[in-house]
């Protein structure tokens, strides 16, 4: 078996052609450019049975280039235990390439999932949206720090960037027009210009992501979960990609780093904090989604209360556990290609034990979740119906007096029952009030007699 191992670098890469039977090896240094690597795959790699490389930035397009020449590829993660060498006295690019080839021959390397070029671009766009959001928050904090350092008060929270923006703009001034004691106003003008530009670019990216989400059935499916919004659905789809690459929910939990660390030695076996492996952005957004789902999802609230047990010290642990369950449910929905079904959640929960009647009833009576477009359409429909009902009520006559009919027989029929009814004597109100005002004095006189 011949293996072509690549130790990729920013400028140059080292190629190692290794024969597992004869253990012969040859090395080649080539620039990390498309035309040079293309010649390597055509010449040195034409007889190679496997192309091995470590996971890094350029490994995506190099893997696509190798597969275009019909080569079997293996992209491995250097974070695995097999790659952690101890007591190494020499480390060179040739040694790293040779280690890749030898460990691939022994089958000690674990491959990582390589998404398609389209999905890599989508994942990069989702990550870039969060990067822009972080830059905007950093710019806002810088502006707030200047006002605090100069003893000027501005509004708190988002109010400062909406209704309170006029007060902030009143202090900005061009840097060329600032005096030596107000140079911070020139810096403020530059930062506000950057803030407006970043906000505009962020809105453009969000609109583009929403357009992609409308055409992606996976994002639509995950948005049916109560408490899961468009940003959470985009990140989950970007990370999971192919759901069938996971065998069970435990692998999904470990992939997101939401499982506890295990310390085992002899009779000692205890669990520590979560591993925090995998994508930190996905883990963060899952925890935020878990806290938000407590207001919209009765199933999530029931799980949280069961794990928390009304103990203050277990609130955060319950939130992490709920985030893990949401990730597993999202993976199962993508795998089975099914939307959120409260009845299905009742069946799965009851298969592990009894379910409270109150929680079961709230799940069964749960209405389907509406996205933003459906909610807007419903509000427009309700407003249209209310307008039509108002117009119809105005068109109908509201006369309380009924006109007498022209038929004389009907008059006599209506008049006869009124004649038979005896008239009730109306008691005057004044006499009643007078009789109530005198009784005590009259009563006392009678009792004395």
From TrEMBL:
<dbReference type="Pfam" id="PF01548">
    <property type="entry name" value="DEDD_Tnp_IS110"/>
</dbReference>
<feature type="domain" description="Transposase IS116/IS110/IS902 C-terminal">
    <location>
        <begin position="220"/>
        <end position="304"/>
    </location>
</feature>
<dbReference type="Pfam" id="PF02371">
    <property type="entry name" value="Transposase_20"/>
</dbReference>
<protein>
    <submittedName>
        <fullName>Transposase IS116/IS110/IS902 family protein</fullName>
    </submittedName>
</protein>
<feature type="region of interest" description="Disordered">
    <location>
        <begin position="361"/>
        <end position="449"/>
    </location>
</feature>
<dbReference type="InterPro" id="IPR047650">
    <property type="entry name" value="Transpos_IS110"/>
</dbReference>
<feature type="compositionally biased region" description="Basic residues">
    <location>
        <begin position="421"/>
        <end position="443"/>
    </location>
</feature>
<dbReference type="InterPro" id="IPR002525">
    <property type="entry name" value="Transp_IS110-like_N"/>
</dbReference>
<feature type="domain" description="Transposase IS110-like N-terminal">
    <location>
        <begin position="6"/>
        <end position="145"/>
    </location>
</feature>
<feature type="compositionally biased region" description="Basic and acidic residues">
    <location>
        <begin position="361"/>
        <end position="391"/>
    </location>
</feature>
<dbReference type="InterPro" id="IPR003346">
    <property type="entry name" value="Transposase_20"/>
</dbReference>
